[in-house]
Amino acid sequence: MNGTSPVDIAVIVTAIAVGAFIKGATGGGLPQVAIPVMAPFIGVEHAVVIMAIPGILANGWLVRTHRAEAVHSRDLPALVGTSIVGAVIGTVALKSLNGRALSAVLVVVIVAYIVVVLVHPGFRFPARFTRIASPPVGLVAGGLQGSTGISGPLLTTYLHGYQLLPRAYVFSLAVLFCVGAVVQTVTLAFVGLYTDSRLVESLLTLIPIALFLPAGSWAAKRLSREMFQRVTLVLVAGYAVSLLHEVLAGTS
Fold it and tell me: Distance between CA 232 and CA 182 in Å, rounded?
């Protein structure tokens, strides 16, 4: 990170640590917290490249530590399979779409979901609905990841509607994000965006992640199921606010 001061580096490390803690607790949040903080100091592309490999390892760790919860998950094969297809299609066909328009649509979807949950506490997507909805949701999420890198808000909102047990929710998100991170990393390497210095920087981010990811996972165990659902709903709302800011600022 040439040209960054010790203070800048401290801010970046803090953002990574906070994002890792949130990810350990909820299954999401690491790139959403870290990349916007890193980008003003090193640029968006640089930040995205640095965080790709940590995304594989962080999600892989969560998948491994929560693997016993696989029996409590639903529709993962359909979501994973179609998201891979969507990522390929998105990279090729959706590149020309207006990022602000996509973000605006996501904001509407997320806000509508939050309103439904608040008006009808305990609302959940029935299994008969998710069996039908998961393939297209996975396809759209993959397309968004391939074209804009914003699949997290959609997947987090959709899986929140399952009302899974907390650890099963984290496992499901981690599986989907891990697959996305693998596809992203391979793509970045294929187009030549990794350099020796970026690889070193990417590996250095694993230090705060290794410390704070387990801490977040430990903290989540102390939450009741109801409190966990509230915390993750707040995270979903945070995604909506972030996306709305992008739409209004024209940064998508």
Answer: 24
Phi, psi (deg, nearest 5) at residue 165? -60, 145
Sequence-distant (6+) residues with CB within 8 A of 148 are 90, 94, 97, 99, 102, 103, 252
13 CB contacts (<8 Å, ≥6 apart)?
208
pLDDT for res 94:
47
* 3-state helix vs strand vs coil in the chain, percent to 5: 80, 0, 20
Contacts of 120 (CB under 8 A, 6+ apart): none
Given a contact cutoff of 8 angstroms between Cβ atoms, the answer to whether 188 and 49 are in contact is: yes
Rounded Cα gap, residues 252 and 243, in angstroms: 8
3-state secondary structure 49-113: HHHHHHHHHHHHHHHHHCHHHHHHCCCHHHHHHHHHHHHHHHHHHCCCCCHHHHHHHHHHHHHHH
In angstroms, rounded to a whole number, what is the distance separating the alpha carbons of residues 62 and 45? 26
**Backbone CA torsion sign across 203, 204, 210, 213:** negative
Q: Cα 101–103–106 angle (5° rounding)?
A: 110
The span from the CA of 252 to the CA of 81, in Å, is: 27
Is 26:148 a contact under the CB 8 Å cutoff? no
Tokens standing for residue 109:
């979807």
Q: 18-76, pLDDT tens digit by residue?
A: 999 999 999 988 888 888 888 888 887 888 889 989 999 999 999 999 999 999 999 99
Domain boundaries, the chain: 1-71+187-221, 74-163+223-252
Mean pLDDT of the chain, nearest integer: 87
